[in-house]
Amino acid sequence: MTAEQGLFLCAAAFTLASAVMVVSARRLIHAALWLIAVLSGVAILYALLQASFLVVVQVVIYIGAIAVLFIFAIMLTRRQTDHDAPSRWTRRAPAFLISLLTLGALSGIVLAFPEAGRLPPPMPPDLDAVNALGAALLSPTGAAAYAGVLFHESYVLPFEVASVLLLAALVGAIYLATTERRRRES
Amino acid sequence: MNFWNDPLHFLAEQLTAMLSRWGLPTAWITFIEFFLGAMALIVFAMVLDIGLVWVERKVVARFQDRLGPNRLGPFGLFQPVADIIKMVIKEDITPATADKFLYNLAPVLAAVAVIALWAILPLASTIYGADLNVGLLYVIAAGALGTLAVLIAGWASRNKFALLGAFRMVASLISYEIPMVIVLLVPTLLAGTMSLRGIAEAQRSIWFALLSPLACLIFLISAIAELGRAPFDLHEAESEIVAGYHIEYSGMKFGWFYAAELLHAFTFGGLLAILFFGGYTGFFGLEKLPAFIWLDNPFVQAAVFLAKAMVGYWVIMWVKYSLPRVRIDHLLAFNWKFLTPLALVVLVSTAILHRALMEAPRWQYGMALWLANLVIAWITIEILRAQARRQRRHQRAASQRQQTAQEQTV
Amino acid sequence: MMDWLLWILPLPPLLAFMLILLVTHRSHAWSHGLATGAAALSWLGSMVLFIRALMIEHLGQHPLESNINWLPSGTSWLQIGVSLDPLSAVTLFFVAWTVLAIFIYSIGYHNFGQPRGDHDQPGLPPHGATVTDADGHRCIVPSVEPMYARFFAFISLFAFGMYLLVVSNNLLTLFIGWEIMGLCSYLLIGFWYGKPSARDAAIKAFITTRVGDMFLLLGMAWLYTVSGSLSFRVIFSAENLRALATTVTPVFGLSAAGLIGLLCFLGTAGKSAQWPLHVWLPDAMEGPTPVSAMIHAATMVSAGVYLALRMFPLLSLDSRALTVVAFVGAFTALFAATIALAQNDIKRVLAYSTISQLGYMVAAVGIGAYVAAAFHLVTHAFFKALLFLGAGSVIHGMEHGALHSGEHVDVQDMFQMGGLRQRMPVTFWTFLIGGLALSGFPLITAGFWSKDEILAEAYAHGHYAVFLTLAAAAFLTAFYTMRQITLTFLGQPRTQAAAHAHETPRTMTVPLLTLAFFAITAGWVGIPEHFPLLGGLLPNWFHEFVASTSSEASAKAPFHWTPLLISLGVALGGLWLGWLVYRKVGAPAQDKLQIPVLKNRWYCDTLYSILFVRPSTWLAEHFVSRFLDQGILDGILHGVARLSLVLGHALRNYVDAPIINGLIGDGTGATVKASGSALRRMQSGRVQSYMTASLGMLFIVAVLYLGLRRLF
Amino acid sequence: MSIPLSWYLFLAAALFCTGLYGALSRRNAIAILLGVELMLNAVNVNLIAFWRYLDLRPNDPAPMNGQAFAVIVFAVAAAEVAVGLALILSVYRRRKTVAADEVNLLKW
Questions:
Q1: Would you tell me which of B81, B170, B186, C636 could form a disulfide with B215, CB atoms 3.0–4.6 Å apart?
Q2: Tell me, what's the pLDDT at C554?
Q3: D8 vs chain C: nearest CA distance in angstroms?
């Protein structure tokens, strides 16, 4: 058992434990904060996977934006969400069952997956992941533009679509959030 | 490699040699070294912080035409120590209804968020905690942590003022992060990297502040907002919400917030220096001259950097103590309707010129960028003036209407 | 640089279209400013491309090309791209000129700057506005088109489609442009949708061309399945052509190449109105005249021929296919020419002449005279655009006169005109040039050279039938052209309107002059080498330039005395005869050629309405509605109803009331009610329970599936 | 370099199912969204793990499929949260509740 494995196990345990807290914490604000713990745990996993860019993005977007949004919403609906009354077992039991089944199914798939046991290949020595990712996302010729080798790996269209989706979400959120009265005023 | 050229690695090697002589496994050695490095960094930051307390108090005094602390030690140099003692011996209250864990977590988080920034600040070309290739993003991430701290503090202390303060803080933080991120892209663009060290190195010939003064200005403004200092300190507006999110905090917990704020301000001074004023590098490639070769010595570089950071910090203080507080809606309107569009314009123009003039001679490149900024600034001012004129006209019309109405009634 | 230019060439008109529709549709000046500006930009780009294309060596063998990946499809990418070869270069040339000229012309034609009409409304042509001038006279002047901005938006979109079609290097984008133009044609023919005739014409055009497009689409699909790509380079690569030529299809034992070629040719027939799909073009004259000029004379109908030229390498692989094409073309040429003899509407005459000229080109393609077809395509585009714009100018002048004199005349009826020579000199001279070019007046006009080349080719390749048909058509062409000119411009005014007609504004005359210039000079680039005297004065670069596109086309333009003399004879003879006959004719009554069969266009429309329209309506009306619906179905229903009524009575009294109601009915009702109130708990309106249920179902299904797979 | 791919996959599966349980069992709409976030993160862990283990090939200089996917998932997650929370807030404003089972206008 090497140091890396130990690190992974710690991170995994931390992440899973926090995840369990997220779904079980009574106080929503705690749940949200546990979510942040989960997110940082996942960030650590990214670091273990040597995806440094995504580590930071995870922190910026998830912790910095999404989690804060959650906390904000929780605070705005404070009266309701101070305590989330435990739902009846009639609700929890089937949910638990379903989740267990899903877990079983997924594990079965993983076990059946031939590549499951493989170890990571060495990182390409001269891989500038950030630039490569940028090229893959933004240049019509894909990472080819960056690496000078031609293989079809361009995500311009999906990326643009995603940005449009974000814009739409923005507009929709603003529209939903403004009250009728304010809308009539402006 | 000797101590004077590359102190950190020198020390590290010495330590490695020693520890391996003791026969520790390499993994442990690296762990110990990193741990010691982190400790050293934190200690350095904290000591600096103590100094900052004194600086702040003195400078404030001068701004407000007072003497400031002058009893304890020469120039009241020991005043901060007294402050710390006072804070430590004060009663440490935790409100009964507060959310204990979070309430105690918040100040720590606040301090951590700031100290985390120091992990990537390059004091000199060879003295830095880590040289991330996504350094700038890291800065933003740390800022997000700060937001979180404020939010938790406000929520956990179960006090309506605290919650209000937290709301205001988060509102301003989230909104001002946008122009900040946008203008952070300008140095990234000019230097072609996100690592702070790379950006500093890229300015050996000319500071980015000269290539894109507008970006520098916008960064300064949004930095002040990010710090939540006057004129953007609505989250602790004494006159409205008593002390904002740290209303319930006392003793050393408050001390943490206080220290965090000071260090944060100084850190942003440092960031300003790195991003726009060449950081630890000398002045316009002066160090290339044989006479000034000593400028490249890490210790000199560190001194230069700290001096620049101090200047930035001083400017921030200057703004804080000379401007009145703005209203919350003005704050947000200023950001969304003015700063963000301006930042976008600056970014786009810089990007276009940068791409167009890549092969052009450096001086043309520089002049073009500089002139572009000038033109943008001029247009902006013209627009603002036109709007102001329109507003004045409306006001005049309104007042006249009122007058006529009164006359009719009379 | 050139790739880049090729890519952005079609975009300005599209941009103009969007801007006009979204932003500037309120302001007339802005709208036509945007449209013409965009047209000018594309014009500039086309000129640059054209000149650069001339400079490049062996452009034909190695056309400029650039592709981008458009959509990922499995492992490969669906590529779209642009290319520039001699054919598209020359097409670009005339498209750019005509489009620009017509954009500018439209400004004047739609009375920009005139006051709004008194009772104009959108969807109807402007009726004129009463104004009181300085000294208090109330007079009626033409009023501005109510839907001014919309018109420019539409033609901008159309220009986009045309440019797209020309620059695209694959059938897919070509087809996109093709359909965009179809749409624009529909919109613009029905531009004055207030007039029922315009509505019908629009629908007719749309449906008729759609028939052709259907086949074109079929051809494309087949081509894709066979050669796995729609890019011309891939399609016309040698091995692919060989494969296509060798595979034999079940249809008439044609080769795949021939069959696909014919399918595409049907598309052409639809677009450029070849018999039997020609019926829509004359009705398309319901649209505003610039539309007729641009879409239905100069560019869009040329697109069909352009496609035919593009598909030439395919067609030329199968002689039978070529023959079909040749005969359809030649027949159309003659057929349409005969109809044109008896038309009185100035625009309809031109419409039919267009059809017949397109017939010429198609016939040229059919006899393998690739270059001649392209040549005639270019020259025809110029002089036909000129003629239509001239006609529009005449109509405009007549309207002006009619408004002035206040009498109600059909301003498009040639018998109401006459003597316009003095009133509208510029229009007259330009129209005369166009007419001469159309009828192939020797040596000076462009039409002569191109038409003569087609005839020469036909003769040289020994297609004597085609040759004679075309020659006859040429004679008729010259005849009705002269008839038109005589009736319209010469002699004395026959109506007050004609007497008070008025020369049109400069925005209309300048395009006329420009096009007139090309109507003359466009021919001088294609003078055959062996032509007496003139031959060799100017290099026949057009031939060399375009011939390099397709290997099949013969490199040198043939020359014989026979076809030359014949074409000289028919042209001059026709002109002379036309003048001789119609010098004195003043009213339709005196016109000998007003014979019903021609007047009614060989009863084509009647035939179609008998063959297709009436039967379908009859089927709908009598068979489906009366017989099936009301007769059988209703009958059955009534029978059943009556039967059930009787049955019902019986059942009710003896079965229903006592047994069903008493026992089962209420019992069931009670049970249903109980079970319903029990079941309704299921639908709780809770998202989560639904989600749980669905996931559970998923698992059950999965388990069943796997278990069953185990079993069997 | 000593962790087999399966570890990551199992972890992701567990995370996903935890999130699923949360999304199914919580009453509070915001809590449900929290569960959904967990699931999304699990997906991202999978994507990155696949990128690291299967996508990186020695001959290819810079294969970025996995990371690109992850980035797009980020964008989608952000959009989902923005709209979801806005919806919850407007529901709260009208009905003064955010309990998912009290918002049941679709009920018989």
A1: B186
A2: 53
A3: 24
Helix (H) or strand (E) holding C70: strand C64-73
Option in A94, A105, A154 nearest C692 (CB): A94
User: Quick one: C562 and C638 in the same domain?
Assistant: no
pLDDT digits (tens, 9 = 90+) for C361-402: 888 888 888 888 888 888 888 888 888 888 888 888 888 888
- Do C533 and C611 sit in the same domain of this protein? no
- H-type helices in B90-193, by residue range? 100-118, 135-156, 160-191
DSSP letters, B51-103, are HHHHHHHHHHHHHTT---S-SSSGGGTTHHHHHHHHHHHS-----TTS-HHHH
Same domain as C630, residue C534: no
Judged against a pLDDT cut of 50, whether residue B140 lies above it is answered with yes
**Domains in chain D, CATH or no CATH each:** 5-102 (1.10.287.3510)
Q: Which of C323-327, C523-527, D17-21 has the lowest mean pLDDT?
A: C523-527
> Between chains, do C702 and A154 touch, taking CB under 8 Å as contact?
no
Beta-carbon separation of A140 and C68 below 8 A: yes
Chain A interface includes C68 (CB < 8 A): yes
Q: What is the ipTM, given to two decimal places?
A: 0.62
* C284 contacts C187 by C-beta, under 8 angstroms: no
Chain A contacts to C (CB-CB under 8 A) = 91, 94-95, 97-98, 101-102, 105, 140, 152, 154
* Domains along the sequence of chain A with CATH: 1-84 (1.20.120.1200), 126-186 (no CATH)
In a mutational test of the C interface, the residue from A89, A90, A101 whose CB has the highest number of chain C CBs within 10 Å is A101
Three-class SS of C207-228: HHHHHHHHHHHHHHHHHHHHHC
User: What is the nearest CA distance from A36 to chain D, expressed in angstroms?
Assistant: 10
Is residue C485 within 8 Å of residue C583, measured between CB atoms? no
Domain ranges, residue C613: 600-651
Closest CA of chain D from A77, distance in Å: 7
Q: How far apart are CA B248 and CA B102, in angstroms?
A: 13
- Token pair 């052209």 is found at C481
**Phi, psi dihedral angles at B218 (to 5 degrees):** -60, -40
C574 and C627, same domain (yes or no): no
Q: Which residue has the higher pLDDT, D105 or D86?
A: D86
Residues C516 and C558 in one domain: yes
Q: How many domains does chain C have?
A: 2
Binding-site residues on chain C for chain D (CB distance < 8 A): 680, 683-688, 691-692
- C477 and C572 both lie in a single domain: yes
User: Mean pLDDT across the stretch B228-247?
Assistant: 77
Question: HSE of C141 in the Cβ direction (CA atoms, 13 Å)?
Answer: 14
Comparing CB atoms, the residue among B27, B133, B170 nearest residue A68 is B170
Candidate from D31, D75, D93 with C-beta closest to A31: D31
Identify the three-state secondary structure at position B117.
Answer: helix
Q: What is the pLDDT of residue A18?
A: 92
pLDDT band for position A145 (cuts 50, 70, 90): very low
Encode pLDDT of C320-336 as tens digits.
888 888 888 888 888 88
Q: Which residues of A touch C695 (CB under 8 A)?
A: 98, 101-102
Query: Is residue C436 included in any domain, yes or no?
Result: yes
Task: Pick C115 or A21 by higher pLDDT.
Answer: A21
Nearest to A95 among C72, C692, C702 (CB): C692
pLDDT digits (tens, 9 = 90+) for C409-422: 777 888 788 778 88
Please state, rounded to an integer, the average pLDDT across all residues of chain B.
84
Per-residue model confidence (pLDDT) at position A42: 92
C628 with C548, same domain: the answer is: no
Residue C629 and residue C488 share a domain: no
- Measured between beta carbons, the chain A residues lying within 8 angstroms of C68 are 140
